[in-house]
Amino acid sequence: MIENYTRLSSRMFTATVVGKDKNGRKITEGRETYKTPSGVYEIKDWARLVEKAAEADGLLPLLEQIKRHVKEYAWMKNASDINVLILAAECLTGRAYEHWEGFVIPMNTQADETGQLTFCF
Fold first, then answer.
1. Which domain of life does the UniProt lineage start with (predicted)?
2. What count of other Cβ atoms lies within 10 Å of the Cβ of residue 3?
């Protein structure tokens, strides 16, 4: 199920004018979206869907371990839970954790008979 959210065909940021300030300057609001084989999602929605897919695929312990790891980054110390989830979801789907020195994959994460985690891309 997680493979539905791992293949990003595009990552778009759009700004929309939502009004004007007291000096007549435009006020814009930004929106970041990911396009995947299963649809187009705002980044926060995509991260929540990755979390649900990870749970369905038995990868939730790995995602939780990744979340604990990324919270240690200096720029994530005071980050909101959703921003931690977004970064963790990106690291999970991009398999960045495979290159982290000293990172241990939780034992209760589903793997194939060789002990390797398998994603279908």
1. Bacteria
2. 16
Q: How far apart are CA 87 and CA 69, in angstroms?
A: 10
Q: Give the pLDDT confidence of 21-65 residue by residue, as tens digits.
A: 999 999 999 999 999 888 999 999 999 999 999 999 899 999 999
Number of domains in the chain: 1
Residue 109 lies in a domain: no
Q: In this structure, is residue 7 part of a structural domain?
A: yes
| Amino acid present at 65 | Q
- Bridge partner residues of 32 (DSSP): 13
Q: Tokens 């604990």 correspond to what residue?
A: 68
The CB density around residue 28, as the number of other CB atoms within 10 Å, is: 11
Q: How many CB atoms are located within 10 Å of the residue 21 CB?
A: 8
Domain contains 42: yes
Containing domain of residue 93, as a range? Answer: 3-99
Q: Is 35 helix (H, G, I), strand (E, B) or coil?
A: strand
Question: What's the whole-model pTM score?
Answer: 0.76
